[in-house]
Amino acid sequence: MTIELHQFPTGLGMPNISPFCMKLETWLRLAGLPYEIKWQPDPRKAPVGKLPVVVADGETLCDSERIIQRLSQKHGIDLDAGLGPQQRAQAHAMRRMLEENTYWGLVYSRWIDPQGWAQFWPVFFGRIPAPVRALVTRMIRGQIRRDAWGHGMGRHPPADLYARAEADLRALSELLGEQPYFFGAEPTSFDATAYGFLGNICEPAMKTPLNDAARRYPNLVAYCARMRARCFPG
Q: Which residues form the GST N-terminal domain (predicted)?
């Protein structure tokens, strides 16, 4: 079976600048499933207007978590086979924290905070011809501002917003402790999620309050290096 992975292009020295795309690609590598990347810089062309998207055996799948569930079912893969009910519940809660709260701290740091925006826009929009670049960036950035406001995180003062995101990082650092992975000696599906988000915060050569906060947790930095070496060597 050929798996086509439609995702954003790479950038910032990362496998992907989208934590959701990087989550899925990390999972595919942990699961040992071969895939072919189809770069897609415009998510509006995706079926639900978001990336990643997978096309496998004529079936189009959207949403990183749904894709993982479907591919796990089709291929008989369970990276969480060694987890008990309590650990699975903990992984679910941490995943929701990253995807519904920490994510918006990352979005704010890249798209809204002037310091982060100055570093991020050339990566995301640098290939767009100059005559239309200003219009496109203004339109997309405006939509992201509205999305952040609608979610609620965008309504907070920057210091409060970053404090909320750092509280997530602190919790993850405590939960990881000195383990190589979040649930022990081998990675689980949660580690794919964790690296998708933590890698995008810890590893890029960007300087924002969120990036700086993440690098204050040595075990998270070491964890990202460990995941990168395992899943994206070379």
A: 8-79
